[in-house]
Structures are given as C-alpha cells and as structure tokens.
C-alpha cells in the first residue's frame, strides 16, 4: 500500500522559490549611495521639482492617489482573511479598485505602445492582481510578485510612497517570465500572438477493433445507479454486492452527486486508485488495479480505513490533517513499495497524489489517491548508473589482477542488483597465454577456476571455494560453469534445483535487502577479441525482483561491458608478455655472445700484433723508444734507419709547437697518475685526401695528418712503471670525412630549404595563372552555351560585347600561359644544365647588336611601368675596336633577359625608375674591385668543350655586360643568397615580386660555361648593378657565318608579353600570323569531347535563392589578373564586388561596413549610420582572401579581423574564405588556425567557389545568403 512513512510539509512552488532567490540577490547587490554633504549640492537638488524629474525619466512612471483606497483595501483584506477556506488567498475588493485614481503619467508611459491603456483599466482582470499589489494586499499565489517588485506587461514595477501619492516606475524586463492567466508567458513578445499550429499528436490512441460502430448506448454508465450498466467486470459486481446501507456511506441511492462522480471516475481508471470518504470513519472504495497494491487487505470495500488499514493509518493521518487545514494536494514521487507476491516480496516504485474532494459547501468530504507505477523507470535508472560505473572503472585496468579487483569493487556498489557474487578466473592446461586472435581448436582445456573476489560470502566458504578443480567435479556450480563456457551464454540456476543443504547456505551475508537469493546467473567472461573464456561471474539475482526480460538485458549489457574492458586488458597484457619474452631472448643472446667473445679473444690478440696501427713502447726513465713497429714509421714518415730514438725529439718533429705542452702533460699524467690517456692530435705532416672522393665544389686547401694516440703505463709487481705502451691510429681520413660531412650536411639542409621555398613559390606562381585561366575559360564557355542548344541571333551590341569579353579573356589566358611557360622553361633549362644536355654553340656575332636588341625587347614593358631605359657602350669596348666575335648569342641573350627582367621587377615600385645596360671589353680577365662589382670566383661548371676548341683558332678577349637599376637594392645578407639554386634575395621576394628563384642561378651557370663569371654590387635602398663577362674569340666581318641575332631564341624570350611579336619581326618580319581556330561547338568540336571542360552552369547559380543581388563580396588579391577575372565572374552571378590589393586595404575597407564599431564614445553609432563622409554603410557578406600578398598577407589580415571581433570593434563574425595556391595540408591547417572559415585552393572553378561560399554563409546563420543583422 503506497503510504508515505513521514509527514512532509508541502515544498514551495518553483515560482515562489524564484521570488525568494531574486529578493535575496537584490539585497546582495544593493548599493549604498552616499548622501551629498555639501550645502550647495543640496540646494541645487532642491531647486528641481518632482514633476521635472519624472518628465525627464525614460522609465514608464505614473502616480495614484491612495487616500480613499487605503481604508477600502484594508477592510477588504480583513474580510478576505475571515472567509472560508474555499478561497486560499485574499483578494482586493472591486470597490477598492474603483476608488483608485490615476493622477499622473510621464511621457515615457504615454509613448509606450498600449501600456497606459492597460494600466488605466484597473478593475479589469488581470489588472486586479497588479492593483492589489499597489494597494499592499498580500497574495502568496500572485505569480507576478518579485520580492518587493511586481512583473506586469513585460515591466518590473517598483513603488515609492510620498504622502497620499504612490509613485510607480517600471523597467523593461529582459529575462523574467510573467505568469499571468490573461496572457501567455513568453520571453519573446511575438509568442503572444495567436498560435500558428494546432497541437500535433504523433501517435493517436488506439481504439479496440471490436468497438461497435453504431451500437445503441445503454441507459446509463453510472455504476451507482439502479439498474447498473450491463457486462460489468467481477470487481464491479463485487462493488455492487456490498451492502452500502450498513456502511458509513449509507445506501447507494442516497449518495451525493460528487461522490457518485468520483466513484465512477475511479472505477473506470485503469491505474490503481482509492477513495477515502468521510471525516470520521473514512470509508474505502478502490478500483480493480488497486488490489495488487493492498494485497491481503482485499476485500475491504466500504470498510473504514482506520480499521481495515490500521497498521498504515498512522502514516495517513498527517496527510489528512494537512489537507483538512490547507485544502492542498499532497504528492510523492517514486516511493518504494514492496508488494506481496505468491512466492516473494516484490520491489516496486509508485508515484501518488492525495487529492481533497470537496462537497457542495466547499468543505473537504473525502480524499482521492491515484497511483502510477514507476518501477521500470527507477530500476532502469539504477541499473544504468551501475553499468556506467562498471564500464568507466574497469576501463582503467591494465592487468588482469587489477581488472578482477575493479569488477568486484564496482559490483559491491550495486548491492540491490548484486546481493551475492563470486568471481572466478579460468586457467587452462596447455596454453596459458591469452591471445587476442582466436586460433582454431581453442587454447587448451579448462583446468581450474581460481576465486578472485566475492560479495556476501568469505573466500573458502563451502559455496565459494578458493579453487574449483575441473577434474574433481565436486563443486555444485561446475556443470553449469562448463556448460556456460561451452555455450558462451549466461546460465540461470535456481537454488532449489541444486538441492543444497542448509549448511552450505548458512553464513552468507546477503546484500541489498538481506533476503536470500532464489537463483544465480552463471556468466562467462570473455574478451570481445577472443573466443576463450577468461573467467566466470556467479551473480545472485535480486530476490525481490523477477528475472524478467529487463533483468536479462541488464545482465547482457553488464557482460558486454566486462568483455570490452577485458579485451583492452588482454591486449595490453599480451603486449607486456611479448616484451618480456623479447627481453629474455635478448639476455640469452647476450650471454651467448659473451661466451663467443671470450673464445675469440686470443685470436683478436694475434690480429692486434699485425694490426694496421702504429705501436710504440717507451722507457719512462730514459724517455727512449724501446720499440716502434713499421706502421709507426709509415705514419710519421720517419726513416726506419733513423738512430734518434729520443721520444721528446720525435714528438717535437711531429706535433705543432702549440701542442707540445699538451703532450708533456699527457706524459706526466702517465708517469704520475698512472692512468690511461687518449687524445687526438694534429701533426705537421702533410696529408692528401683521396682524389676519387674529393668534392669539386670546395676550394682546394692544405691538409695535415691527424692521429689518435692512446697509451697506458705497464706496471710491475711492486706497482712501479715498467714501460709505457702506446698506439697511434691515422685518423686523417676520418677527420677530413667529418669535416666534409658537416659541410655537405649544411649544404644539403640549405639546399632542402631552398628547394622547399622554390616548390612553394613555383606552386604559387603556377596556380595563380591557372586559376585565372580556368575562370576565363569558364566565362568563355558560359558565354557560348545556351540552355536550349540553339544560338539566338545576336544584336550588334550583344555581339560586340561578346567579342570584347572573349578577347579580354583570351588575352588574359595568353598572358597567364606565357607566365607559366617562363617558369617551366626555367626548370627545363636547369634540367638540361644538370644532365649536360645544354650545348653552347659559338657563331660569329656582334655583341653590341645583341645587347641593343635585348634592350629594345623591354622598351614597351619598361615604358608601361614608367621606367626609363638606356644603352651605353663603354670606352673600353671602343678602345679595343670590337666588332665581331665568336660566341653563342642565344645564351648571351638569355642571361641579359634574366638580368633586365629582374631590374624591371625590382624597379617598378620605386620612386626613381631608371635602368642602364652597358657593354665593355678587356683583354685580361675582369677582376673584382673593393668598391665595385664582386665576381663569383668559385665555378660550378667547367668551360664548355665546344668553346675551348673554338678559342684555339684565334685571339680571345672578354666581353663584359652590366645592368644597373635604381631599385630597392640588397642588403649584405640578401646578397649572400643570390646565384644559388632555388634562391632569391629573401623568402618574401617571390611574394612581392614573383619568380621562381632560378634565373640568376641559370645565368651563373651559363656565364661560367662561356669562360666567364657573374657578380654584383648593391646598396640597400639605392639600387644594384649586375655584371657578367664571357670569353670570346675575335673574328673578322668576312668570316661571319651568320647574323648577330639567333634564329632560335632561348626559352626565356618567347613567353614574355609583348616580346613574341618583336621576336617574329626580328627573325622573319614577313611571316604571317596563324589565325586561331574557331571553338564554336557548331564548327566541328563534338559536345562530349573529353578534352574540353564542361561549361559551368552559371545560369543555374544565378537562379538559386541564396544568391540575391544584395550579396556583397570583398575580393582581396594582389594579382591584378586574378583579381579582375574573379570579380568579373562574381558580378556576372549578380554579386556586388569590392576589391583590395592586400590585407591592409581589406582592414581599411571593413571600416566602411555596417559592422564596424568605432572605439571612442563619439562614434558609438557609426556602425549604423555609415562612414564619415556620409555614405551608407556597406552590408558585407563575405571576404575572399588570398594568402601571399605584399604589405600584409592573408593570414595576418584574418588574424587581425578575428582580433577586432574579439575586441567588439566588429559587431559580428565576418566569414573569410582563403583563396590561395598554398594547398599543402600543413598550410591549410595553418590558415584555419589563423581564423579562416574555409580554404579553396587555386586553381578553382567558379561553381566550386560558389558552393563553398554557400556552405560558409549557411554555417553562420545567413538566410538566403544575406546576413541576418541583429546588432
């Protein structure tokens, strides 16, 4: 019977607790305002009237006159308190409400939408509760009260009384809910509107299929009337069979309507319910479902609860008294109740209410107690908690002993579901090792089970032996253990099946409720990674619960958790065992090797006698050599017939003068300290490294012999020094190899660094034009493709616009292709140089003419960049009367183009822009000068063999070319990095100026192959002069075999914009240009040609709802071609596009958007009113940010943007997508870490970019692609 064991006072409602908490918080946060002390301040304050202050107050404020309403309110409260208990709280009389007069309202209240009208209608509901609070009437059920304040119409109101006037001020509520019966409570005012939907029912209630469709209704469904309804259940017949006239309720026909109604409702309730009627006898009426609750008390229908349930009435009486005094319902949730079943006492949980039943006079006439069983939920919560604890704790185990211990510790916590438990570990005959991978045939037969833990019983008890021997067969659980191990499934065993004597079950401390278990479950424990059972859990079943499906599922989940944890323990244990085996094997091998070493020790001694080391013996007294082997004379290059055997003289001839003192100290250490000494010594003896392993890249230098000298004192029987024995090893080759290895390692690391920089810069240089090519191609394809496949007849304007756009895209593609070809040609040239396939072909040419044409090729480009160019012939060239020489003009022109290209590149951004190309000549080889050009003396390659043969046919001279610019100049550190493979002046050079870092290296190789060298002189911020010279043979004009200009130009020429036509004019001015083939699909190119990219469906992109015309994109890109093409493509999609050349401009652009918030107070509303010049603020949607840019790169820019967002300088998150050629995984992670929302690698198609833009915008709360701005 669900009877609470103690009387508990009703707990306060959540709203009341909230009011108390708010009041306490307000008291804690109250601020003491210091009263003004100066007389002048008081006078100034007194000069202002109350009305002036209220009129200036931005809070809604009004005043009421309470002179006539105070007495009425007081009398109303008095009468209300004296009223019957039918009304639980006093209310203000309506006459008092009518007496309230609104005498003032300030402008803020009048301006509030509808607020004044609602306050003015005081007598109406729901304003009565608000007015009652104004008049001081206490009402504990008023949900609008907030301590000394009141929540009404979305405002928190506070009062101040001044004489007969009460001033009421309100503050807008931002997070409190108003509990009012007249209007729905919600934080959002829009929820006060009419509901948008009907209540939805996902699963409608089932109606029995046997219900007749149009069956006639009986005369009455009332079980208390006569005649009763037909087809009553046995319990209803039992209810009708009671002689109610003999009970305190009286005859059924005299029952009140209230009693009849509640009785019929209870009898029809499918959940347990009971009705206690009357104040003295308290007669019981209960439904059929309540029988299982009262158990043996049934039948007691109509009997007095004080008599029939006298054992429980002491618990019910406090509930009855509380309801009689307050009229309030009492409830109890999840109360444990133990029901008598035929075989056991069942553990259940019920939630109940004790509800007062009122008569016609409003007095408590009875008590209605409905019950709802919550057993399943409570058991599930308890078992899940136990399973979580078991899984989390056993997962910490790293070995089997710890695992068994943790299993038992966690099971002890769940004493109700594990009142008894035995845990055994299985041991096998053949193979004790646990294998994570099961093998066919198993791992041997089960030999015994060892007890690892128990619950409720001590180890060694008859039912819990410490070991269960399989061969013994005497244990009662053994057959079930073997069966469970074979089936690998839990086995339920009842104690009455075992026929155990009482002595075996005595002495068991049953946990939980203390009742003996009726049955146990024998559970095999095996890891999920193996089929071999590792243990058994004999788990006692809760004696107060049936072993139903829920209990079985609990056991299955428990075993699964144990198996998962055991798998990790098994794997870890197996790993440890393998390591131990490996250590044991290593120790065995070590011992074996030691024995072998001892056996060969004598053999090594014989080898030492003939070892290739110098061995010597010195007499410590005379310091004379006693013995020196042949190797000693070979190393030190002494004559074997030399009679000077003085050790001091010998070492003075061997070691350097500064090392003699160290040698003397070493000898003294041998004699005095009698310790072994060993040291490396550099000698005076010259040494030559092997010629076959010398590195030609390093300068030849003088080497000396290095020796490793070791010596020890040989002691006699009286510990006296008999002799000093030593040996000398020639380590010159090792020392030289160490030095060479160090130099090569440093060179390799530097080369690797340069190669990585070259790959990144080349990838960047290749991907940028590829991206522009792809987007231009998309633009051409989209312009030529039509949805229906028919090409409409274009208008002249449309045709001209189409031709102009196509030509512009084609020119951009051509420019990008030429840029890519230059990089490919540089790499091809390097490949030819490395493989020896690049050939120097000398022909008769005029160097002056070649240089002039090199200058002419760049005149147009220099003019476009505002750079002045001039060509000068030095006097040395005129003095030697140089006209025609034999050289390779192709390679000469290639070097000139590289130097002029670099000069233009580094000069175009300077204020002073001038490039001077000069030519000179000399008979002798030009040399470096202290204040002039410093040529590179070390050569990477030898002179070309064709040129060597050509130089033999006449006199030679040196032609020198110089390219001087007024560019940015180079520092000393930057100068040292030039002319190396994949090197530029600095890692930022290719970002600001482009290039692959191969040009100067190629130029160096080409000049050295032509018998010359290259060098420079540079001053930072002043300019640079690059100069090179080549060796050439004089020729006469009559012997000239060809023109001064090559017919085949080097790879560096043909890719430059504007030079192709110049080259065609130089080679063959009459050569006609080959027209481009028309790519119209109607002219023969099949539509499904796999060699053509499918045209992007830009019309489809334009038609998508998420691309409105208000989408504003900022493109931050330093490459003007990519910037132009991408902006054009986005504008074609209907986007508004702004551009910036680097990150700094992007940050300045953000100040013009609506999301920028100035830091000073004077600019507080700048983000909403526009920029300083009066223009409207820009509604920026997204930023497309390049990475590698001058001034400020993309990563720095996006980091500063995120910093501005954290500082609230930007009012919302600005989505940023990285559009970059740096697409290595580490680079992408770096970009995302810096603050990018996504990264798109170059090259890309517009459709791909648009899809990524859509995802980013949707991810940040964009509706239709437009930011929902709420700031």
UniProtKB/TrEMBL annotation:
GO terms for molecular function: phosphorelay sensor kinase activity. Residues 173-220 are annotated as: Disordered. InterPro entries: 2C_system_His_kinase (IPR050956), CheY-like_superfamily (IPR011006), HATPase_C_sf (IPR036890), HATPase_dom (IPR003594), His_kinase_dom (IPR005467), HisK_dim/P_dom (IPR003661), HisK_dim/P_sf (IPR036097), PAS (IPR000014). The modification 4-aspartylphosphate is found at residue 1186. Residues 761-1034 form the Histidine kinase domain. Transmembrane segments: none annotated. PANTHER family: TWO-COMPONENT HISTIDINE KINASE (PTHR43719), TWO-COMPONENT SYSTEM RESPONSE REGULATOR (PTHR43719:SF30). This is Aerobic respiration control sensor protein arcB. It comes from Melanomma pulvis-pyrius CBS 109.77.
